[in-house]
């Protein structure tokens, strides 16, 4: 599969994240950009969704457990056609539908209010169990952050999903190694992550989470796994795609200068131009 168009979509989504930061003056950029390749691949190449019918009962579901990374989901939802992209210019404004965390009452495509860290996996497990009980073939995808794994509710959800053999559930853990108060290994080391989920009875896959080919391969593996849920341990880079911010704690919640925003946008535009040239020439 030629994934260059998907890579371009991911870069266009990065531009939308920067557009929101410009509108609001700040935002949780680091985690949004570390997981945006995953979110792009899911919405554009994996999930069965219809932006014109966001409540279609046969849809696949997506939950962003790490709700503070909401700009990633917003950036992709707009690109996918769930709402007009001019909405990005309201980010950070009073009454905006684009809150700091996802709100299902304000925006189409949001399945649950998230951001109280540690709860997304349990919600996703409940959804997956309900879909199976209803004879619905829909799948449930969720993205967790490595910094939220110490929350105990994650492991209740992991137990429930394994016990009920929820093979319609795929959880991505965005392992960017940083959280608001420092490196995750120093704040609360949860490694080895894959081994912990395996001990609960999950199928485990470890990938480069900023590689769209790897993301699609992981979903394909999960689709072939019967009788147990799959966790994808996605090794990523905080603020991926902005060279002067990558892997920095400062990117977790970024308050840029105008010059920094301009520089970041130029970098992304340059990559889009290169990818389009590559794709047009069939390289």
UniProtKB/TrEMBL annotation:
UniProt keyword annotation of Nuclease present: no
Print the keywords alphabetically: Thiamine pyrophosphate
What Pfam families does the record tag this protein with?
A: Transketolase_N
What cofactors does this protein use?
A: thiamine diphosphate
Select a single GO molecular function from the record's annotations and give it.
magnesium ion binding
- Stated family: Belongs to the transketolase family.
Name recorded for this polypeptide: Transketolase
Organism expressing this protein natively: Tessaracoccus lapidicaptus
